[in-house]
Amino acid sequence: MSDGSGLPEQLDDLVLARRAGLGDRVAFGVIARRHGPVMYRLARRVLLDDGDAEEAVQDALLAAWRHLADFRGAAALRSWLLRLTLNKAHNVRRKRRPVPLEAGEHPAPADPGGDPAHGIIENELVAALDDALAGLPEPQRVAWLLREVDELSYEEIAEIMHTSRDVVRGLLHRARRRLAERLAAWR
């Protein structure tokens, strides 16, 4: 653990959280840069909308700024921030009615230097995975994303989702089974 001296980017999360809790905006900026991308990925996959995800992350960061003085480090800062993000994503969803995606509504960025067929297949696979994930019940989708994309442990996921490790195992098992069924054509 760091002694609290040195450049803010080099400090560990607990020291940054303590500094930010005392009003250090530079420390909070480091926290936001360090954890913002994973917060956004989670919110985006839960809400299925860029704008809603940005709103949820902004709300979560604002809540973190307001409550970092109360953060005691019982959980990892990342887990605490992801839990805030998940709560704020639920709040955003409650405020909005979901808008269904139209078929083929997956923009495919062009890869000018690559094989066009490979790019098309890769984009279609990503679109199929997005569709399959969107079809999962939210707890399964969140557990799967936290495990497979963010590589969190079962214990960290249980903490973020306010559940037990065994429930996380069950959610992941069902999510993997459903995804395998829905993506069978891609095997």
Automatic annotation (TrEMBL):
Domain RNA polymerase sigma-70 region, chain residue ranges per copy: 32-97
MF terms in GO: DNA binding; sigma factor activity
This protein's UniProt keywords: DNA-binding, Sigma factor, Transcription, Transcription regulation
The keyword Hydrolase is assigned to this record: no
Signal sequence residues: none
Gene Ontology terms: biological process: DNA-templated transcription initiation
Keyword DNA-binding set for record: yes
Stretches the record annotates as Disordered: 95-114
Domain RNA polymerase sigma factor 70 region 4 type: 128-179
InterPro entries: RNA_pol_sigma-70-like, RNA_pol_sigma-70_dom, RNA_pol_sigma70_r2, RNA_pol_sigma70_r4_t2, RNA_pol_sigma_r2, RNA_pol_sigma_r3/r4-like, WH-like_DNA-bd_sf
Family: Belongs to the sigma-70 factor family. ECF subfamily.
Protein name, as recorded: RNA polymerase sigma-70 factor, ECF subfamily
Natural source organism: Jiangella alba
